[in-house]
Structures are given as C-alpha cells and as structure tokens.
Amino acid sequence: MKASASVLTLAFALALPETAAAWNDRRAAHINTVSQDVFEVVPKIASGRFFWCAAADHAQRVLAAPWTADLFITRGLGRSATTGRVSAVQFTLNADLAPAAIHGNINSLQAGQSMSVQRAYDYCHRLPGKP
Question: d(Cα 43, Cα 85) in Å, to the nearest integer?
C-alpha cells in the first residue's frame, strides 16, 4: 500500500510542471515554434515586458540558453503566424538570422532589437501586478 501511495504522489508531482509548461512562460503566453531557430511569443497581454519576459523564460528553461545569450527579434509585433492572433513577436537565439540591429524601447518590438536572456528575464519581475 505504501508503494502505491508513493507512486501516486510522484505521478501527481510530475504532472504539475507539465501543466505549467503548457503556458510555457508562467504568465499566460503561448510559445510556438516557427522554424528550427525561430519561436513566436503570443501573450494574452500585448506589453513589451510580457513579450521579452516570455521569450527569455522560454530561451532559458526550454532551450537551455545561457543567461548571457542574446535574444533577437526576427519579426516585430504583428499578427501571429502560428495562431492568427493579432499580437505576436518572433524571436531567435541565432545571430545569423537577426536583422540589422536597431535600438528602441521595450514596447517598440521591432525586428532587429535584441537583449541578453538575463536582461529580458528581468522584465518578469517588473510585470504589472507584481510588487
């Protein structure tokens, strides 16, 4: 009986991370693969902080990118190629796929913007509703 209770407890514990991973970013954003090197962030709230946070979270937790790796926007804010939603941004970790570098604020979300995974992840701690 003890063994079956332990197995059930383990199964339940293992199921929880999978549920969280379905969002992929813990903040209600879906991450969809566009190609081998490009992924699309489709958040429920179209704020630059949400896009960068979700991209960094995915890059670090799922793609195992180091904190020092750079995230690049390959296609700026526009209609999702994977879901059809109005607001989506495509990212890559591959510098060879990055458009010419541009500078803008976090809400401009234009192709060519980049920042490190760590800097983008810092926006996760500065989302609306967080202290």
Answer: 9
Rounded to an integer, what is the distance from CA 116 to the centroid of its chain? 13
Predicted confidence at residue 26, as pLDDT, reads 53
CA 57 to CA 52: how far, in whole Å?
8
Q: CB of 106 within 8 A of CB of 48? A: yes
- In this predicted model, which residue has the larger pLDDT, 8 or 107? 107
Give bridge partners of residue 31 from the DSSP assignment.
41
DSSP 3-state of 124? helix
Torsion angle defined by CA atoms of residues 52, 53, 57 and 60, in that order, rounded to the nearest 10 degrees: 50
Distance CA 47, CA 52 (A): 9
What is the model's pTM?
0.77
